[in-house]
Amino acid sequence: MQNTIEQLNNEGVQYFLRGKFEEAKLRYQEALDMNPSYATTLNNFGMMFLQEQKFEKAESFFNKALDENITSTYLLNLGHAQANQGKLNEAQINYEKAIELNPKSLDGLKSLASLFQYKNEYHDAIRIWEYIILNISSDVGFKLQLAKAYIKIGENQYALSILHEASKQEKQQEITWYYTALIHFNAKNLGLAKTAILRAITIKPEEVSFRSLLAAIYLGLSEFNSAITEWDYILNNQPENHKIRIDKAVSLLATKKLTECIDELNIVLRSNQVPKALYYKAVALLQLNKKDLKAIGILKKLVELKTEFSEESKNILHNLTL
For 229, how many CA atoms within 13 A lie in the half-sphere containing its CB? Predict the structure, then answer.
């Protein structure tokens, strides 16, 4: 019988790996009909539900598997099911139990560090990422995670040091340069930021986040036309990217290209009355005509809506009456 159960379980695994989930479930169920406490199949059934994002069912099966046999793998899987339901403290407990059983479990350590990072417990995340890098794997992905955690706590020099080491490795160099650029940008070191992000773009020219950061750097350098060129590049591929279109419009406003600015904002406002787009349209209209009634109407609307632009709109209206 045992060989038959194992055979059914293994057939289920093969179906699962080929994406044939219904066939896999049938095999797993046949195995459990023969032995309802067969831990391997209970765990595999849980993995099936985890893949289908049926997290409560997955949790139930992992618990059943653990009732029969406590292993690091089953505890780790249970933690995944709980984390996906927002049961973060329970997930943490099970990740820690999994690591106690298998201290060198890379999956367990990664999961725990990622959970700490998600909970904004960055010092704990740093502790785990550093342990992984020093004792298990120096993969650049772990260095990037460590650098991001240091950025979150404001330790930018530590982050830059880690990114410098990561840049010597071939993998994910574009991400390494992106975060290097981001640190320099936030520190107002715009020349260094520009150099780093251009290296990232050389490797991955289509990446929107890279182009967007370069545009912001150009904006900080008052190189408005260069910023607009970057935003146009993005909009050519993502015409519905309203955030980028508004950023472009603000640059056009800064360079006194008022009609072009309004045209860009109108594209946004046709589908979504974004407060930021409304505000800058009003500002552009007022620069064309200080008594523009449409602009005044927009500002009054923004004051009533209680948006982040309400106070600025109120101040402009006040100044118009002086």
Answer: 7
Q: Are 84 and 53 in contact (CB under 8 A)?
A: yes
CB-side neighbour CA atoms (13 Å) of 177? 24
Q: How far is the C-alpha of 21 from the C-alpha of 41, rounded, in Å?
A: 14
pLDDT at residue 322 in the model: 59
* Residue 290 pLDDT greater than 90, yes or no: no
In percent, the amount of the chain with pLDDT more than 70 equals 99
Residues 6+ apart with CB under 8 A from 69: 39
What mean pLDDT is reported for the chain?
93
Residue 2 has pLDDT above 60, yes or no: no
Looking at residues 247-274, what average pLDDT do you find?
93
pLDDT at position 94 is 97
Give DSSP secondary structure letters for 26-69: HHHHHHHHH-TT-HHHHHHHHHHHHHTT-HHHHHHHHHHHHHH-
Per the CB < 8 A criterion, the answer to whether 300 and 317 are in contact is: yes
**Distance from C-alpha of 13 to C-alpha of 272, rounded to nearest angstrom:** 47
pLDDT of residue 3: 60
The whole-angstrom separation of Cα 123 and Cα 128 is: 9
Tell me the pLDDT tens digit for each residue of 23-34.
Answer: 988 998 998 999
Q: What angle do CA 227, 273, 295 make, to 5 degrees?
A: 80
Tell me which long-range contacts 261-269 makes (C-beta under 8 A, separation of at least 24): 268/242
Reported as a single tens digit per residue, the pLDDT across 116-130 is 999 999 999 999 999
Q: Which long-range contacts (CB under 8 A, 24 or more apart) does 185-194 make?
A: 185/213, 185/216, 185/217, 185/220, 186/156, 187/156, 188/220, 190/217, 190/220, 190/221, 193/217, 194/218, 194/221
CB atoms within 10 A of CB 111: 22
